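We give the chain.
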Amino acid sequence: MSSSVSLSQSPNRLLGIVVGIVLLLVGLLGFFVATPYPFATPQGGVVIGLFASNGLLASIHVVLGAVLLICALSAALAAKLANLLVGVITLVLGAFGLFFDHTAANIFALNGGDNLLHFIVAVLLLMVGYATDKLIKPRVKQ
């Protein structure tokens, strides 16, 4: 796994690793607290006293965290694209939580802490994804 742009030179790679680890941890902890609840339901356990979670939300966090980590460890362009994609997904999750928190449609068991986490992650990933690593070009095989 090599990249022409080192980890210390790419904000996208560095942020992808940090946010990827955070999402993985929140997702894995979410599985433990969500065990007694159905997979996709408004009810769920609470992770570290802040984030509600059920099996569906924990699965999403694990997948998004893994995508960020894998891409950040592979190449700067992959990290940039992953940051943008995961940023959009977490923005949608945050918006969903604002509109459907405390309703039967809240299949992710989102609460205010989750919404805040999703919006912070979305803003960070989208800002770094759009604003940095502008000189990265895909390699063309000759």
User: Anything to note?
Assistant: The longest strand covers residues 45-47. The two ends are 21 Å apart (CA to CA).
